[in-house]
Every structure is written in structure tokens, then in C-alpha cells.
Amino acid sequence: MTTSHTTVGRPRPRAADRRRTIRVQRATFIVAFLVLPVTVFVVFIASPFLQAFYYSLTDWRGFSQDMNFVGLANFTSMFGDPVFLAALRNSLLLCLVLPTAVLAAAFLIAFTVTAGGPSVGHVRGLRGGGFYRIITFFPYTIPAIVVGLIWAQVYDPTRGLLNSVLTGLGFTEFASFAWLGDADTAMAASMFVIFWALVGFYVVLFIAAIKGIPGETYEAARLDGAGRARTAWSITLPQILASIQSSYVYLGLMVIDSFGFMMVLNPQGGPAYSTLTLTQYLYMTAFTKGQFGDATAMGVFLALVILIYSGIIFGIFRLLGGDRRRGAGA
């Protein structure tokens, strides 16, 4: 009776008070989840980029406050520099070849490990699939600098493991072959090192994505007579297309950089600049030549290249239907 009396006697909040409470909660939510993150983004991401763009329009030497406004002179001289054009060509080659090779290999390994088991009974992966995941993921745990040092020793012309193995197999012409010292092989050898270091991460990523596909889908395909190749192409690949899209963008950004790998394998950009990348040349221009205005111009251009690359990838996957599948999956 006391409780009922207290409830009945308590004044009910007015509609105006309820609306005021809702407005306060909404304002608090917007400040916490929108205004604060946008402020952090503007201060720590957009602002440094705008500052870099300003420096790219000057002749700043990097070690003093003195700088003169030169307009677009750094950009025009950049495109007249044959070394820069060689670095641009190499970076574009990396982002065209490596993401495709890494993701194709990762998909094949992930599908084989996940659905490459017995042909009868429930669809399951290879026996000991965890072992394959570990040995493929292991190189990804090694820092890029260490990976570069290891493979620099493997490629060593006189004491390297690769030439020793090839010579032992009878290919005596490789007895002292300089894989990183020949303009025809330096880029391919460097690409293989990056491939070796990165493929394991995407194997694990794709295995997780494939395990999210219902087993009934695979069993229905098997009952319909679909082989493993058909299952991989027509069922698995479309189901994980959104994961492949994200991986393609992320991997493309990584290989356009490739700074750690390339600086260890080819500190000067390889023979005839055959392995020089944009990030390497940017570093050399800034910290070797002391031309920070030119270097920031390259950085601004590199940011535009990355934006264009990301836009192209998203456009291609939109045409392939990746966004629709991701929306359906969500």
C-alpha cells in the first residue's frame, strides 16, 4: 500500500522535460560519437596533409624556417625527372602484380586447406590444416627489415643458399649469379620476397571467410556433381568477394610503400633504378639531398596515386557485385 501510494503521489514528468532529456542525450551522443572523432581526424590527419601540401609549394630545405613560395615548380620538375618516372613505373608495377599474385595464391591455399579433404562425407579440409596455417602465417610475423636481411643473404652471389642449391642441381651458370645485382632479375627477386612475407596473412584471412560459408552450400554443390574447381570458382569466390576487395585495397597500399623490404634489399634502388620505389626516392630526396619541398610534392602525389588506386579497386568490385554481396551478408 505504501509503494502504491508513493507511485501514485509522485508527480509525473512533463512532456517538455522528457523532450529536454531526449535532446540532451542526443547532443551527448553526437558529441561523443561524431564531433570528437571528426575533430581528431581533422587535427591529426587532415591538418598534417594540408601542411604537407603547403610545404610542397615551397623550396623548404627541411632544417630551417626559411622557405620561399615556388608554386607548382616542384611538381613540374618532378615529372621531368627520369629517376622519379622510373620510381613511379616500379611502384605501379608492384601494385599491379603483387596484390593479384598474393591474393590468388592465398585463395588457392585457403580453399585447399578448408575444403580439400575427402571427396565423400561432409565437406572438410585437409588433415592437419592447422599446420599449413602456421607455416604459411609464420613469415608474416617477421619484421620487414629482418625478412629483407634474410633474403639478401639467400640471394648472395657467392655464399647465398639459392645459388648453392641451383649449382648443386646442375645449373652451373648460376654459380655466382647476382639476383639483386642484375637489372633483369632484381625486381622479380624483390617481388618474391614481399610475396613470401605477406601471403600467409591472407591465407588465414580467407580461411576465416571460407569457414563462414554454410557447409550445406558445399554439400548441395557436391550432390549436384560440382568438382572442387567448380566449387572454388562458382561458390567460394563469390561468397568471399567482399573480403577479397578489402584485402586488395589494403595489400595495394602496402606494396606501393614496400619501403622496409626495398631499403634492405636494394638501398640505392637496384641496378639502373630497376627496383627504386616512390617511397625510397622520396626518402632519398628529403634526407640525402635535403630537398624537403620536392619530397613533400612526391608525398602529395603519392597520396593522390593511392586515392586513385583505391577508387579503381572499389569501382571494379562494385561492377563485380562485391558491395551487393556484402550488403546481403550484413
Overview of the molecule:
The protein is an all-alpha fold and 330 residues long. Helix content is 72%, strand content 0%. It has helices at 2-9, 15-55, 73-79, 82-115, 129-137, 144-154, 161-168, 186-211, 215-223, 228-239, 241-257, 259-265, 278-287, 292-320, 322-329. Helix 4 (82-115) runs antiparallel to helix 11, helix 5 (129-137) packs antiparallel against helix 8 and helix 13 (278-287) runs antiparallel to helix 14.
Question: Keywords for this structure?
Answer:
330 residues, mainly alpha, 15 helices, flat, disordered N terminus
SSE order and pairing:
Layout: H1 2-9, H2 15-55, H3 73-79, H4 82-115, H5 129-137, H6 144-154, H7 161-168, H8 186-211, H9 215-223, H10 228-239, H11 241-257, H12 259-265, H13 278-287, H14 292-320, H15 322-329
Helix pairs in contact: 2-14, 4-8, 4-10, 4-11, 4-13, 5-8, 6-12, 8-11, 11-14, 13-14
Family: Belongs to the binding-protein-dependent transport system permease family.
Keywords: Cell membrane, Membrane, Transmembrane, Transmembrane helix, Transport
Domain ABC transmembrane type-1: 88-313
